[in-house]
Amino acid sequence: MKKCVLISGASSGFGEACARRFAAAGHDLVLCARRLERLEALQEELSGRSRVYIQHLDVTDRQAVDGFLPSLPELFREVDILVNNAGLALGLAPAYEVDVDDWEIMVDTNIKGLMRITRQFLPGMVERRRGHIVNIGSVAGNWPYPGGNAYGATKAFVKQFSRGLRADLLGTPLRVTNIEPGLAETEFSLVRMKGDAQKAGDVYSGTKPLSAEDIAEIVDWVTSLPAHVNINTLEVMPVCQAWNPLAVDRTLGNDL
Ligand code: NDP
Ligand code: 8X3
User: Fold this and answer.
1) Residue 118 maps to a domain
2) Which of 30, 58, 179, 186 to probe ligand 1 with, by most ligand atoms within 8 A of CB?
3) What angle do CA 59, 117, 72 make, to 5 degrees?
4) In CATH, what number is assigned to the domain containing residue 64?
5) Ligand 1 atom closest to 139 (CA)
6) Which one of 136, 139, 243 would you pick to mutate in the ligand 2 pocket, going by the greatest count of ligand atoms within 8 A of its CB?
7) Cβ of 139 below 6 Å from ligand 2
8) Quick check: helix, strand or coil at residue 61?
9) 188 lines ligand 1 (CB under 6 A)
10) Tens of pLDDT, residue by residue, the chain (256 residues)
11) What's the alpha-carbon Rg for the chain, to the nearest Å?
12) Residue 145 falls within a domain, yes or no?
């Protein structure tokens, strides 16, 4: 059955790959992000296969997000699948050195943006008794690492918010899924390293990371399961990634 799929952050990475995947199945698409020229190119590429509406949207712009649903053409207002994907990490500085503005941007994007978009589209889904919210969390929401501080905390929010939504939606046919990817090669690290391509490349060097297409396949799978099946949380890492033992400091010794 043809569905209407809204993807935030569709201008690169996971969002762009999800757009390609859903377009291949002939679904209607609403694609948003800040880089409109990227969306225009994607719209042109996909238009033969599905109906694609694109919209410049900064998810941190409260007014723009609140006016988003009413601004959509009627054909694209009844969203069946909302992929809350727009997000970012900024920097890897320890909490005592971090630029606090980076923290604010991560909170505004990964938490507040996701909440506000969800709040906009959820009532229609409940009314129509049809809908699936797919949030893109992260392993960083489960497992702390140095420099992950606020980014990991925003993704921990996504985890608990997703669970809370499920609790609220019990008694409706709506589904909510939190996908938690590990190391995946997209523009994520370039953004995190603030445009330093060398540092971003080092993140993936010698690895076989997840690809954006891997994540799109998972999003497609969780949204194609029979209507009574809800994947609550799906954590996925590349085979080359796993946990380390807990870190132990041996420098402070008897100073403590
Ligand atoms: P990319 O940087 O390739 O894509 C991020 C997308 O988010 C872009 O389309 C970008 O669009 C959009 N975006 C960022 N800020 C805003 C904003 N203020 N308003 C609207 N759109 C915004 O990275 P990924 O595809 O990897 O990231 C997608 C999601 O996956 C993020 O939530 C990220 O945290 C998460 N994730 C990534 C992992 C990885 O290792 N790659 C692992 C786990 C989770 P534009 O700049 O045009 O606005
Ligand atoms: C992105 C994965 O491990 O860089 O969310 O935080 S990680």
Assistant:
1) yes
2) 186
3) 90
4) 3.40.50.720
5) 43
6) 139
7) yes
8) coil
9) yes
10) 999 999 999 999 999 999 999 999 999 999 999 999 999 999 999 999 999 999 999 999 999 999 999 999 999 999 999 999 999 999 999 999 999 999 999 999 999 999 999 999 999 999 999 999 999 999 999 999 999 999 999 999 999 999 999 999 999 999 999 999 999 999 999 999 999 999 999 999 999 999 999 999 999 999 999 999 999 999 999 999 999 999 999 999 888 8
11) 19
12) yes
> 138 CA distance to ligand 2 centroid (A)?
6
Ligand with the closest atom to the CA of 57: 1
CB atoms closer than 10 angstroms to residue 208: 12
Three-class secondary structure of residue 44 per DSSP: helix
Number of neighbouring beta carbons within 10 Å of residue 121: 21
Taking the C-alpha atoms of residue 172 and residue 166, their distance in angstroms, rounded to an integer, is 10
Q: Which range of residues forms the domain containing residue 210?
A: 4-241
CA of 97 to the centre of ligand 2 (A): 20
Q: What is the pTM of this model?
A: 0.98
- Catalytic sites, residue numbers: 151
Give the chain's domain count.
Answer: 1
**Any atom of ligand 2 within 6 Å of the Cβ of 140:** yes
113 domain-assigned: yes
Rounded to whole angstroms, the Cα distance separating 61 from 188 reads 21
